[in-house]
Amino acid sequence: MLLRRKKHTNPLFDPERLRLLLDEQRAQRALTDPDSVDLLTWNVFSTLDTHRDRTWLAYRLQALGGPGVTAPVRLSLWTGAHREPLLRPPAGYVAHVREVAKAHGGDDAAVGDFTAPVEVPVRLESPGVLALIDTTIATVPRGRGGRDRLVELVDVGVDAARRLGNTLTVGVVYSSGTGAAGELSARVNKLREPGALANALPHRRTLPPITLRELSWQQLIQTWHNEAGYLELGGEPVRCFVEFCRRRGLA
User: Fold this and answer.
1) Separation of alpha carbons 90 and 85, rounded Å
2) What residues are paired with 170 via a beta bridge?
């Protein structure tokens, strides 16, 4: 008699609500793939947004959004590309890409991926700050058409922050101890140098002050664990998630 192996699944919080935000393939991967960054993004940020003390939450989120983050704060996941508010590349960048493509014999079809709206895993809004936060585990994320991801988020975020009357922060969360962590940290520090962002965005005549932040999953999950008693976690597999993070070296 053959015994069927029990199929292991990840400790995913409120999977039905997640499926309202992600397509079925990504939702299924979050449930079954231990390397799914969507799993971490969802479990941590969707529950942090249930924090009962919004002023303290704002203080905690300054690690990602900068010291200007104040209550009330709101977290939105995977917006920008298919979910409002959309994050569209600016007209100057689109014109620049088309010029480059034309010079190399390309047409509008060749630049379609560069000009499409951009998804951001975490959008943090507070009265004075808009923070666009990318998430990864052990890979260096790339933007549309292979563009530098941090530069892409700055480019689409500047206009979005201006419309809100806010300053812009762009952040990234990664797993410490990986090659990606070292590369991303070095890139953040490079872009903080005077003139670096302006050089990376030649289609923009001026740039407002922009804050760049970085944080490890290890630090963020420790914060989440410290705040768990103030989050709405009833019925969720919290102990399993904590153990999952420990096995993955994230806690």
Assistant:
1) 15
2) 132, 212
174 strand-pairing partners: 216
The answer, yes or no, to whether the previous bond of 72 is cis (omega within 30 of 0) is yes
pTM of the model: 0.94
Report yes or no: 213 and 189 within 8 Å, Cβ to Cβ. no
Residue 53: CB atoms within 10 A of its CB come to 12
Do 118 and 143 form a contact (C-beta atoms < 8 A)? yes
Q: How does DSSP classify residue 142?
A: B
pLDDT in tens, 97-117: 888 777 767 666 667 788 899
Give me the sheet containing 120-125, strands edge to edge. Answer: 74-79, 120-125, 129-135, 167-174, 210-216
Task: Return the SS3 of 215.
Answer: strand
Nearest to residue 153, comparing CAs of 124, 180, 133? Answer: 133
Residue 224: HSE in the Cβ half-sphere, 13 Å Cα cutoff: 26
Q: What is the pLDDT of residues 79-102, one digit of tens each?
A: 999 999 999 999 999 888 888 777
